[in-house]
Amino acid sequence: MGFPKPFFRWRPHPWHGLDPGDDCPNIVNAYIELTSFDFVKYEIDKSTGYLRVDRPQRSSSLPPSMYGFIPQTICHGRVGALSANTPRGDGDPLDICVISERPITRAEVIVSARVLGGLQGIDNGEADDKIIAVLANDSVYANCHDISDLPSVMIERLRHYFSTYKMIPGKPPTMTVERTYDREHAYKVIAAAMEDYDHEFGRD
User: Fold this and answer.
1) What number is the average pLDDT over the span 61-82?
2) Does the pLDDT value for residue 204 go beyond 60?
3) 11-35: average pLDDT
4) Coil, strand, or helix at residue 118?
5) Among 3.90.80.10, 3.40.50.2300, 1.20.120.420, 3.30.70.1140, what is the CATH number of 27-201?
6) Residues 60, 95: contact at Cβ < 8 Å?
7) Tens digit of each residue's pLDDT (9 = 90 or more) over 136-148
8) Is it the case that residue 33 has pLDDT exceeding 50?
9) 73 has which bridge partners?
10) 116-122-127-129 Cα dihedral, nearest 10 degrees
């Protein structure tokens, strides 16, 4: 008996086997690694596509939003060129924070996210941007189309979280948030990360 069509016999790799979205960079697919309830940092295993435990968080703060990445992106030179403080990216998929009014409590899900802006982060001298988005069909955030439409306290929480989530007592921070940027710049970062991916891996 043959497999019905369409049928994926094997699970697609979330980074390489999913696409960024038909309406990218306005609406993107986001693969969620962390929820707002996780005290452990999970990260995609680049070889297998499964989630790996990266580290338990040292601090008591929780992620202010869902956190993951945009498939078929990578942060290399083109992303680094958009930062004033480093010429190179961190070599990881482009991170994205997705805000929703209703709590989403499980990871390893795909959500459609409307891009609003981002945070320009530098981690150990490498560009580590965080795109900021809202759940595309969220009723409460339906009228948010730019980062300026979000409550300022939400941006403060995101900045604080990413400025502190890698801190080790007694050691200087390795991660800094340089600035917040709007939707138009976020589009440029996403396009650059997709071009970096094409250069690194090619795209069928």
Assistant:
1) 95
2) no
3) 95
4) strand
5) 3.90.80.10
6) no
7) 999 999 999 999 9
8) yes
9) none
10) -20
d(CA 180, CA 176): 12
18, 72, 92 from 13: Cα distances, Å:
7, 10, 15
Q: Which two tokens stand for residue 38?
A: 């996780």
Which pTM does this prediction carry?
A: 0.92
DSSP character at residue 89? B
**DSSP H stretches of helix in 38-151:** 77-80
- Taken in order 199, 174, 148, 151, the sign of the CA dihedral is positive
pLDDT category at 183 given cuts 50, 70, 90 is very high
For the segment 57-61, the average pLDDT, to the nearest whole number, is: 76
Q: Which has the closest alpha carbon to 116: 183, 20, 28? A: 183
- Residue 1 pLDDT: 44
Residue found under tokens 């900021």:
132
Point out which residues pair with 62 in neighbouring strands.
none
Any idea where the domains of the chain sit in the sequence?
A: 27-201
- Radius of gyration of the chain from its Cα atoms, rounded to whole angstroms: 17
Please give the Cα distance from 11 to 156 (Å, whole number). Answer: 37
- Which residue is listed with tokens 């979330």? 14
Q: Which two tokens stand for residue 10?
A: 């094997």
Q: What is the arithmetic mean of pLDDT over 59-86?
A: 92
Alpha helices in 43-144 (DSSP H): 77-80
| Of 39 and 8, the one with more pLDDT | 39
Q: In 3D, which of 74, 87, 17 has the Cα closest to residue 193?
A: 74
